[in-house]
Design a protein that fits this description.
Blueprint: E1 2-6, E2 16-19, E3 30-39, H1 41-48, E4 61-62, E5 66-74, E6 86-90, E7 102-105, E8 110-112, H2 119-124, H3 126-137, E9 147-151, H4 156-167, E10 171-176, H5 181-187, E11 191-194, E12 207-212, H6 219-222, E13 226-234, H7 239-251, E14 254-258, H8 265-276, E15 284-289, H9 293-301, E16 308-312
Parallel strand pairs: 9-10, 9-12, 10-11, 12-13, 13-14, 15-16
Antiparallel strand pairs: 1-2, 1-4, 3-5, 3-7, 3-16, 5-6, 6-8
Helix pairs in contact: 3-4
The structure holds NADP nicotinamide-adenine-dinucleotide phosphate.
């Protein structure tokens, strides 16, 4: 099978196509023929070696978390899926292996793909939308009529976060550049802060939840946007934020959380349902054939993509 690998950390050009044996599913696993994958910033952060302290540094390395495709083979004890089922999911992003013609999925990493979406749109969902869902729901427990501020509102995570927050009944203030104001409104944002015209930290408003996917400013600056009892959730961990967060958990009504996305089949099922009810629509920035994974990474590294970057595989 064709698979994207790299032999050293470095620029996008280290990515290359290789020919590997098709993997065999173990008892509870499923072999998926991948039709589309998607790029997430974590992919190029690992590729650059930025996470070398926590990943296995053996080469060659494989890459990619998101996939949508068709079940080709199931392990001997697997009962949930059958050959021919159309599925989507997310493999462990640290070990990434979804930029490939075939991927092995474990039970919690896979669900039936939305019927209303094609493979490319379905592949756009898992990592980014799971992040958005888990970040808004799990710790801050976003409730109807709450007011949430979302930075990076037209990025991969933000574009799902705006839609999910609206679905949960919240009022959404989106933070984006001038160029992304229209798309943020189309995604459902009620109010827009154009960060090119106004510093978000100068806004004279208070929110129940601040979901920060950009982390341009430290929590010490963002906290002025928070109500007395409220939550700040970020996708970008920092040691100072973590220690500060622990202290604040003990002494303040302003809670700070760092989200860490997990593959959860029930959450994939929830996202499929939203998509099939027409309440969640992936925003697609661009599509590249698998062999142009390096170009797709270059696009993602600009930080300017409108939603998700797709790799078409089949
Ligand atoms: N912890 C986790 O589990 C987890 C999971 C998923 C993602 N992440 C991390 O979360 C971050 C966002 O991921 P993503 O997939 O949404 O990335 P993305 O698709 O590249 O989106 C980034 C967004 O940031 C905005 N942006 C860039 N520079 C900005 C600035 N100076 N001020 C304000 N906004 C700015 C961009 O919008 P404009 O063009 O409008 O500037 C863009 O919409 C990444 O660092 C990723 O690694 C973490």
């Amino acid at each position: 099978m064709k698979i994207i690998v790299y032999d050293q950390y470095g620029p996008p050009e280290v990515l290359k196509m290789a020919g590997w044996d098709k993997p065999e599913p173990k008892e509870n696993e499923v072999l998926v023929k991948v039709y589309a994958s998607a790029v997430n910033p974590i992919d190029w952060k690992v590729r650059k070696g930025l996470l070398r302290m926590i990943v296995n540094n053996k080469f060659p390395k494989t890459i990619g978390a998101d996939y949508a495709g068709v079940v080709e083979q199931t392990g001997a004890k697997h009962e949930k899926f059958q050959e021919g089922d159309e599925v989507f999911g997310m493999v462990e992003y640290i070990k990434g292996k979804a930029y490939a013609e075939y991927v092995i999925a474990r039970p919690n990493e896979i669900y039936h793909k939305p019927e209303s979406l094609d493979f490319e749109e379905s592949a756009a969902i898992p990592l980014a939308a799971l992040t958005a869902l888990q970040a808004l729901r799990d710790q801050p427990k976003l409730k109807k009529d709450q007011h949430v501020l979302i930075t990076g509102s037209a990025g991969g995570v933000g574009s799902f976060a705006v839609q999910i927050a609206k679905n949960l009944g919240a009022s959404v203030t989106a933070v984006c550049s001038t160029e992304k104001e229209d798309i943020s409104r189309q995604l459902g944002a009620d109010h827009i802060i154009d960060y090119k015209k106004q510093e978000v930290t100068d806004v004279n408003e208070r929110f129940d939840i601040v979901f920060d996917t950009v982390a341009k400013y430290p929590f010490s600056k963002m906290k002025k946007l928070m109500k007395r009892k409220s939550h700040y959730v970020t996708t970008l961990p920092s040691a100072s934020g973590y220690i500060g967060g622990l202290l604040r958990k003990l002494f303040s009504g302003k809670k700070i959380h760092t989200t860490s996305v997990k593959a959860v089949a029930d959450d994939l099922a929830f996202l499929k349902q939203l998509a099939d009810e027409g309440k969640l629509k992936p925003l697609i920035d661009s599509k590249y054939p698998l062999e142009q994974a390096a170009e797709a990474h270059k696009r993602s590294e600009t930080g300017k993509a409108r939603g998700k970057i797709i790799l078409t595989v089949q």
